[in-house]
């Protein structure tokens, strides 16, 4: 199934929350949805779930508009945890599973399976508010998974988790994607997004600024070329084609270079000054790209 977000707009008075946001999440894909606070991520997810209505635009699943029955097949993990704090974990998960159409016995089996998978089986008899933040988030993920959803929509699922919990949640999301489920999640942990996701969408001020694989996005940004030419005079790289900035740090020169730059010409110029002990090209990280996009 493909989840399609098509030209969504949403305003709150004079504030534009979404301005023609468009992207899709494909079957078996982990899609990282990143942006600053207030960029429009949560608004988009709430529109997908039908919690909010868009002013214009559509959300479709396999080309069909999403109605209430289809929304019951979506697993949702909100940023503001939506659990009943005084209710016991097992009863709560069983209740939520039955709301999504599972029988009592099916719900019981699903609760056992997911609490074991997420490492919280021993806490099923405990009230949610007695759990640590990390375990509450595991319960919230179990609530999103317990009805075997066809789509997963997760808003900041890794927030506040310890490294072990991050690994468990990452493994589960990869497993669901491997089953063909489209998975979209937002996160401020860009190194994690870069490691996990097949594609990434960067949103800023309600508009999608970039969508693509991490490699595609990285190849479109400025790279850094580190050159260690100890005999090179200051300014040796000034004015070279494709070089936008030049920084000198001791005997090393760090060049910011445009995509497609002729690095062999730069190497030739460096060698004309004497020996070159290091010549390495570093593509921008997702964090670098994010800073570049949101500051544009």
TrEMBL record:
Keyword ATP-binding found: yes
Entry keywords, A to Z: ATP-binding, Nucleotide-binding, Transport
SMART domains recorded: AAA
Gene3D superfamilies for this protein: P-loop containing nucleotide triphosphate hydrolases
Pfam families noted in UniProt: ABC_tran (PF00005), DrrA1-3_C (PF13732)
PROSITE patterns in the cross-refs: ABC_TRANSPORTER_1, ABC_TRANSPORTER_2
Molecular functions per Gene Ontology: ATP binding
Keyword check for ATP-binding: yes
Domain ABC transporter: 3-230
Family: Belongs to the ABC transporter superfamily.
Name under which the protein is recorded: ATP-binding cassette domain-containing protein
Native source organism of the sequence: Rhodococcus artemisiae
């Amino acid at each position: 199934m493909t989840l399609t977000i098509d030209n969504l707009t949403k305003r709150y008075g004079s504030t534009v929350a979404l301005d023609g946001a468009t992207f899709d999440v494909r079957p078996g894909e982990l899609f990282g949805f990143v942006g600053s606070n207030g960029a429009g991520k949560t608004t988009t997810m709430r529109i997908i779930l039908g919690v909010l209505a868009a002013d214009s635009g559509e959300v479709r699943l396999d080309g069909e508009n999403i109605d209430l029955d289809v929304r019951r097949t979506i697993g949702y993990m909100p940023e503001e945890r939506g659990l009943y704090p005084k209710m016991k974990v097992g009863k709560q998960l069983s209740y939520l599973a039955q709301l999504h159409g599972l029988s009592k016995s099916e719900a019981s089996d699903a609760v056992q399976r997911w609490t074991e998978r997420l490492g919280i089986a021993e806490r099923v008899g405990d009230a949610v508010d007695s759990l640590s933040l990390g375990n509450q988030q595991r319960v919230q993920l179990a609530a999103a998974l317990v009805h075997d959803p066809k789509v997963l929509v997760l808003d900041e699922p890794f927030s506040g988790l310890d490294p072990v919990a991050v690994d468990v949640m990452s493994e589960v999301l990869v497993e669901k994607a491997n089953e063909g489920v489209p998975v979209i999640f937002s996160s401020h942990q860009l190194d994690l997004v870069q490691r996990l996701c097949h594609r990434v969408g960067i949103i800023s001020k309600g508009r999608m600024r970039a969508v693509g694989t991490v490699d595609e996005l990285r190849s479109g940004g400025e790279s850094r070329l580190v050159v260690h030419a100890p005999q090179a005079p200051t300014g040796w790289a000034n004015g070279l084609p494709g070089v936008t900035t030049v920084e000198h740090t001791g005997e090393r020169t760090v060049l910011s270079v445009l995509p497609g730059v002729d690095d062999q010409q730069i190497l030739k110029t460096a060698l004309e000054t004497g020996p070159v002990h290091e010549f390495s090209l570093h593509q921008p990280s997702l964090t670098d790209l994010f800073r570049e996009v949101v500051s544009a």
